[in-house]
Amino acid sequence: MVLRRPQPRQAGYLHIVGPEHPDLEHIGFGLLSLADRESWTNTFSGFESVLVILGGRCDIEADGRNWESIGDRADVFDGKPTAVYCPPGCTCHITGRGGVMIAVCSAKADSGPDPTLISPDQIGLRLVGTDNFERRIHDIVSLDNLPARSLIVGETYNLPGMWSSYPPHKHDTHNPPQESHLEEVYYFRLRPPQGFGFQRVYGPGFDQAYAVEDGDVVTIAKGYHPVAAAPGYELYYLWILAGEQRIMHMCEDPHHSWVLSRT
């Protein structure tokens, strides 16, 4: 596990983590911030990407497909997102409409479906867990809604004092159907923004825990990885999963899986 505290938000694209980092082989992640009428153009060579609009509106053109003034929320706490999938080799041009922030979620790939708009009404909503580990999940790019080559992308919301990724689970060993090998990146936001949460990542021979703050990024190469929100603060994280095979089997920590008998 590596905790990264990116520099303050800036105009244009900020690369945060990628396969050049020791924790990651597949995933790349960065943030794009554009003011009104500012533009950014990029070709996703060797990567498929999901552009998740965190807040604001924009125009996106991807290999001749055009979507104008898309984005239905002011920030990540304001409902479901809008996203655009771009396959490897796709050239994408984005223009801000009154200001926009976009998460650029990428994974190594050699093929993928055509550029695709994923509107809020196409994004699944799940309520998972119970008691103090109930959370809300948005499935942005899932195994069911888009045949991406590698990426699985979604959002999790913890109400104040609540836990998620709980019971603790991991996906660091290729042993289907019990478990699949997928690395992961979390991008955190807090409301109010001065808040914090906790991220623990542990397994045989290692145990790490960090206080995570608004804008932090955590890379997860292995281990169980539960999250908790501090009282008084709503916690959000965008999660990006990718691996050699796009299958998702999670292995729960057998010491703690008994809590599910309460559901």
Notes on the structure:
- This protein has 263 residues and is mainly beta.
- It is 0% helix and 51% strand.
- It has a single domain (7-262), classed as Jelly Rolls.
- The strands form four sheets. Strands 2, 3, 4, 5, 6, 7, 8 and 9 form an eight-stranded antiparallel sheet that branches.
- The mean pLDDT is 94.
List keywords for this structure.
mainly beta, seven-stranded antiparallel β-sheet, 0% helix, 263 residues, eight-stranded antiparallel β-sheet
Question: Could you report the average pLDDT, rounded to the nearest whole number?
Answer: 94
Structural class: mainly beta
Q: Considering DSSP H and I runs of 4 or more, what fraction of the residues is helical? A: under 10%
Q: What is the general shape? A: globular
What percent of residues are in strands? over 45%
CATH architecture: Sandwich
Total of helices: 0
What is the gyration radius calculated from CA atoms?
18 Å
CATH class descriptor: Mainly Beta
Uncertain runs with pLDDT below 50, 5 residues or more?
Answer: none
CATH superfamily: Jelly Rolls
Biggest sheet, in brief? 8 strands, antiparallel
Number of domains: 1
How widely separated are the two ends? 30 Å
Which series of helices and strands comes N to C? EEEEEEEEEEEEEEEEEEEEE
**How many β strands by DSSP?**
21
At CATH level 3, the topology is: Jelly Rolls
